[in-house]
Amino acid sequence: MAGMGDWQAVGKHRMRIQGDVVFAQIQGEITGDEVVTLLEHMQKVEREYGYVFEIVDASVSGSMSAEARRQNAQWHLQHVLQIELVVFGAGLLMRTMMTLLINAVRLLGRRQIAPNFAANEAEAWAWVERRRAELQAQKGPAQGTR
User: Fold this and answer.
1) If pLDDT is split at 50, 70 and 90, which confidence band does 100 have?
2) Which DSSP category does 31 fall into?
3) What CA–CA distance (Å, rounded) separates 81 from 78?
4) In Å, how far from its chain's centre is CA 115?
5) Which residues contact 25 (CB under 8 A, 6 or more apart)?
6) In the chain, domain spans
7) pTM
8) Residue 63 belongs to what H/E stretch?
9) Span 27-60, pLDDT tens digits
10) Percent of the chain beyond pLDDT 70?
11) 116-118: strand order across its sheet
12) What's the fold here for domain 8-137?
C-alpha cells in the first residue's frame, strides 16, 4: 500500500497513518491516555479529509480499562469526530465490548458510528475502499478529494 506512514508507539500499542486511514494494532488492555492519543491522531486526519477511517487490528487486544471508557466518553462529549471504523481479529468478547462502547457514544448524541467487523486485514482494507468510494460519491464531483 503506497504512502504508508511509519509505525508510531501509542503506549504499548502501535499506529500508523496512511492518508485518511489510522491503522491501530492494539496490544493488550488499552488505557485512557492511549485512547485519547489515538483520538487526537484521528482528529488531525479528519481535519484534513473531513472524515477518518480507523482500522483496528484486535487480534491480540485485551479489554478497555474503566478509565479508558470514561476518558473516551468524556472526549466524545467535547468533540465531534466522523470515524469510519472497521475492526478485524476481534473475538466475540471484544466485538461485544466495542459495540457497547459505540452505542454509548451514539447515546451521547455525538456521532452515528456503526461498528464494522472484518475477518482479516485484507477484508478490512477492502471495506475502507468501498466506503471511501461511497463518501466521495456523496461529496459529488465539485468537491473532489484532498
Assistant:
1) confident
2) P
3) 10
4) 10
5) 13, 14, 15, 57, 60
6) 8-137
7) 0.81
8) strand 52-64
9) 988 899 999 999 999 999 999 998 999 999 999 8
10) 79
11) 8-10, 13-18, 21-30, 52-64, 83-88, 116-118
12) Transcription Regulator spoIIAA (3.30.750)
